[in-house]
């Protein structure tokens, strides 16, 4: 997809990076990205991605803007209180970034509607605020499989990682790490959260997504955790649960295919 | 007599106990304890946390069969889902 003169100027500091270049910028322009949840993480990720020149962005959320969102959801202001987040975010981003096509879907993503929404996307950001939605996003992404970058934050801790069954089958999926019967003891509404904590996680999440869209970097296979009181990042390698009810049925055939390829290569 | 007994007890304990790091703090636990046992011993609800052992995630399904080793570095962290 060729870039216009305006785009060359606008994205020149990105194109300057050897890891991006003209090809990479075109890849971003071609990309279709889905953001599930337009809260603290989602509204920032959406701004970064639209500003960076991602061609198509879809925002899914059925929540309305509340006064208590404003300290960390900087895309919104007092006039937006009571409006749907996904449609306000869409309107504001379209005005600011006319190069990007922005869609807003006023729905809560569930297993019933997830396939139709995720099918369209090259990559998904899970920015939702509850475990049920996170499992629905994961399960649907795994079924395609569509790469997923999931981030979450509450109190002074947050973590994020990518699920990409093609690139990193051994890292498994969200349910390998947190099985579906997991219990959340800390949420933003019960434990509280600070804007910059959310911003830190959203920034790294978006950076991971851009890396994956460009096909650069070492995003997959690791879980990153940040503690905003100790100021420590910790890394752990992800490992799949071979009996995971969500991904085992998808990964095992993928691994078999990979083995067959190796066998063919030997002959 | 008593002090000798106490000495024997300590020696015996050394054989039966191991020391590991749990969220950066040293912890002495009985030899042979599983990761599941360790989590429960800390009075943590197993379904509310994930576990890293020596830099690697251990899926919850494996906590029962995996035995803690001396000098293991274990991190346990809560599930957060906020966005
Ligand atoms: Zn899985």
Automatic annotation (TrEMBL), chain A:
Pfam families on file: ThiF (PF00899)
Residues in THIF-type NAD/FAD binding fold domain copies: 11-246
Family: Belongs to the HesA/MoeB/ThiF family.
GO cellular component, one term: cytosol
Name under which the protein is recorded: HesA/MoeB/ThiF family protein
InterPro entries: ThiF/MoeB/HesA, ThiF_NAD_FAD-bd, Ubiquitin-activating_enz
GO molecular function: nucleotidyltransferase activity; sulfotransferase activity; thiosulfate-cyanide sulfurtransferase activity; ubiquitin-like modifier activating enzyme activity
The organism of origin for this protein: Shewanella hanedai (Alteromonas hanedai)
